[in-house]
Design a protein that fits this description.
With about 270 residues, the protein is α/β, with parallel strands linked by helices. Helix content is about 30%, strand content about 30%. The chain contains ten helices and 14 strands. The chain has helices at about 10-20, 55-60, 90-95, 105-110, 110-120, 160-170, 200-205, 215-225, 235, 240-250, and strands at about 5-10, 30-35, 40, 45-50, 65-70, 100, 125-135, 135-140, 145-155, 175, 185-195, 210-215, 230, 255-260. It has a seven-stranded mixed beta sheet with strand order 8-7-9-11-12-13-10, sandwiched between helices. A five-stranded mixed beta sheet has the order 2-6-5-4-14, sandwiched between helices. Strands 1-3 form a two-stranded antiparallel sheet. About 40% of the residues are buried.
């Protein structure tokens, strides 16, 4: 199939909205087009977890008029950005005529490809997802929700499982509550900040709950109730956003450039 050199930002985002409907985003979330002109044509898009100077400079160098982020640059809705000042990525994107869109909680709920990547990578058999109700977070057998919980065909040694975790998420270490279990049979996973799903992991009797971040006291609370918390790092847990979004854009014949530089990392002196 030949490459379509130029499409409008609106047409691209409209196609992506069919995969990750804005209607599935949380009420407080800012998703979709956040900056720029939807009528502008572009031959490609820059993908990055966050809006950074690196992402803006890459878009400018390639002549792309669109950046797609996981985390919104205006957040949370109605209580986020109050100024647009020189010397910020938001200002530079606007000044350069680059549109910026975000696919955040709508992506988390709709991108089943991520669940398949994680479950295959860890050898888990998915059993359901984490959903929200008026009384908090619960386990659900529905396809709707966040992350998933699953089981191994037979219990795995924790020391063996963490090798796959480090390889799958391309990390060297992580936070984990003590005591770590000798073996693991049931695992929950939610990318990003999974603090609000710890109670559900406890109710589901997960041995291990893997997330980007939960916070010290939330992790401690889960551990005291029998669930080991493993925190990968927020953006590290979301590494499959770029890969999945790239696949979606490739189907649309959109050229893609990636920014993989983490916004936050553990500092290691050499």
């Amino acid at each position: 199939m030949s490459r379509i050199e130029n499409q409008s930002v609106l047409n691209i985002l409209s196609a992506l909205d069919k995969r990750a409907s804005p209607r599935t985003a949380e009420d407080w979330d800012s998703v979709g087009l956040l900056l720029g002109d939807s009528s502008r044509p572009t031959s490609g898009a820059v993908l990055a977890i966050d809006l950074t100077f690196e992402a803006v400079e890459l878009a400018k160098r390639l002549g792309y008029s669109l950046i797609i982020n996981h985390h919104p640059c205006i957040f949370p809705k109605n209580h986020g950005l109050s100024q647009v000042l020189a010397g910020t990525p938001v200002y530079e994107a606007i000044r350069s005529g680059i549109a910026v869109a975000a696919y955040h909680t709508n992506f988390d709920q709709c991108a089943l490809e991520v669940l398949h990547q994680v479950s295959r990578g860890l050898g888990l058999e998915p059993q359901g997802r984490f959903a929200k109700s008026l009384s908090g977070s619960v386990g659900s057998s529905s396809q709707e929700g966040y992350g998933f919980w699953g089981e191994f065909p037979s219990p795995r040694a924790f020391s063996d499982l963490v090798k796959d975790v480090k390889s799958l998420f391309n990390i060297h270490g992580f936070w984990v509550t003590n005591p770590v279990p000798s073996s693991v049979a049931r695992v929950g996973f939610v990318a990003g900040k999974g603090a609000s799903f710890v109670d559900a992991a406890v109710a589901l009797k997960c041995d291990l709950f893997i997330t980007g971040e939960a916070g010290y006291h939330t992790a401690l609370s889960g551990s005291r109730r029998g669930v080991t918390l493993l925190e990968l790092g927020h953006s590290q847990s979301e590494r499959f956003f770029i890969e999945t979004m790239k696949d979606w854009l490739t189907v649309l014949n959109i050229q893609v450039a990636e920014v993989q530089t983490p916004t936050q990392k553990i500092w290691q002196e050499v």
